[in-house]
Amino acid sequence: MSYAPRHNNKILHAVAGSFYDLPCPINLNMWWNFGSMLGMLLVIQILSGFIMACHYTPHEGLAFSSVVHIMHDVHEGWLFRSLHSNGASFFFMCIYAHMGRGMYYHSFVLHKTWMVGVTMYLMLMAIAFLGYVLPWGQMSYWGATVITNLFSAIPYIGNMVTQWIWGGFTVCDATLKRFYVLHMYLPFALGGLFVIHMYYLHDTGSNNPLGVDDGGDLVSFHPYYSHKDFVGMLIMVGTLFLVVLFAPDVFGAAENYIPANPYKTPIHIQPEWYFLFAYTILRSVPNKGGGVAALAGSVLILYLMPFRPKYFHLGLAFYPLSQLYYWIFVSSFLMLTFVGMRPVQEPYQVMGQVSSLVYFMYYPTHCLLERWWDVLMSYLQFSLGESGVNHSKVSNYDGGSELKWDDLSVKN
């Protein structure tokens, strides 16, 4: 009797158990495709960045001209540069959709997977910021000046830390070289975290849109989801190439096509669009220290999601009010991104402050909404139904553990 090679070879057997023969829930929808898209984009970013690094010069007097050289003189250099810059935007589109799906369907109950994923998100933000500085245009230079100055808000050691990052008393050639080295090596650390992320995910298995036990309804990853992921990656890569070939500058800032000038500040300094929500939160707080704390808290608060109480259902499929509030939260995120592109004046300042409040209020409020809905549904189910229902389990339910229907007995 012959067997498939993956069953005879130990290495192939281990790989097949994590990918080819991986048991998956039968009802996963398109929102689970963004993880594979992120893996594809990571490969595209590393390869295109490696090719450009062969022609880039990390020197404050040559960096901008070396980018121009890549665009005009290097064979297909324009393609790789546009792929790399627009690929970063697509990376963040996919990661926001991926994390939004995790928040909607409560993927944070997979504690280790979620923690590694949030760490990857923070590292990705650092890599994107470092890469944004490398072209050494006006927006790159002044964006680096503004962001690195935030470290000066740290009590007692802030100024020392800021000058250590700069390598001097201002953003200079030493800063550019440090940022270049970190931007080159951190993606490989991100790839290592990706492997750990996948290991924890495949060790515990994915959740599903209904948030119920799916032990009896599992299918193998191949061919059911491998083909689906392949189609998703084709759509994503095709869309990326449409942007690269027909609108390569749609995500860029016009000021960044001007060489960096330390003596001329742009009228409106702003980061890339994927940082605008945090930038708006920063400038919505009048106090510098408070703004920096709010900026850090807007991202670090994701680490607290796995520690929230567990309720009757996983995910928001059976919580209509929580679904409504979730989309209000998404709207506040989009509003913060829009306000970040506008000048600091009315009515944008008030809009940013209100959106920041809605953004932060979501994290404690959505827990209360889910618990209230569980209690309401339990009351309607057992007080308006047959007589003789045992209410002790419902009345003593404190939301700290999952409530089971088996605990609620009906006396005939």
Number of domains: 2
Q: Name the CATH superfamily classification of the largest domain.
A: Cytochrome Bc1 Complex, Chain C
Count of extended strands: 2
Structural class: mainly alpha
- Biggest β-sheet strands, sense, barrel: 2 strands, antiparallel
CATH topology-level name of the largest domain: Cytochrome Bc1 Complex, Chain C
Residue windows where pLDDT falls under 50 for at least 5 positions? 391-395, 400-412
Q: Tell me the name of the CATH class of the largest domain.
A: Mainly Alpha
Number of helices: 16
- Give the % helix: 55-70%
Pfam family, one: Cytochrome_B
GO cellular component, one term: mitochondrial inner membrane
GO molecular function, one term: oxidoreductase activity
Membrane topology: Multi-pass membrane protein
Description of the molecule:
- With 412 residues, the chain is mainly alpha-helical.
- It folds into 2 domains: 20-210 and 218-271, Cytochrome Bc1 Complex, Chain C (Up-down Bundle), CATH 1.20.810.10; 295-405, no CATH class.
- The chain is built from 16 helices and 2 strands.
- It has a two-stranded antiparallel sheet.
- α3 (34-53) runs antiparallel to α9 (173-204) and α12 (276-284) packs antiparallel against α13 (288-300).
- The radius of gyration is 25 Å and the shape is globular.
- The termini are far apart.
Protein traits:
two-stranded antiparallel sheet; disordered C terminus; mainly alpha; Cytochrome Bc1 Complex, Chain C; iron; 62% helix; 412 residues
